[in-house]
Amino acid sequence: MNIYFEEIKKKLLNNFKIEYLEIVDNTHKHKNHKHFSIDKFHIHLKIKSLYLSSLPRLDAQKMIMKILNEDLKSKLHALEISIEK
Question: What's the whole-model pTM score?
């Protein structure tokens, strides 16, 4: 796995009780998009967390995005979040 993805994983695991976390790199699916940049990733976070799934979906996603705020400014172009129990 990409070293950068390990950094993301560490940030999330340090801030939330997460039973399972998978980071899927979907960057290749967006090559032909207008604002595509090879320096920015398109990722899908697949999270299993009793804690995050107990919150309203929007609140849980906002909390995750707050943790990844700097990444969203510099290294992430798109972020998809799926949260399960």
Answer: 0.88
d(CA 46, CA 74) in angstroms, rounded, equals 21
Length of the chain: 85
CA distances from 74 to 37, 54, 64 (A): 11, 30, 16
Residue carrying the six token digits 């705020």? 69
- Spell out the per-residue pLDDT of the chain, length 85, in tens: 589 999 999 999 999 999 999 999 998 776 766 666 777 899 999 999 999 999 999 999 999 999 999 999 999 988 999 999 9
Question: Quick check: 4 and 41 in contact, CB under 8 A?
Answer: yes
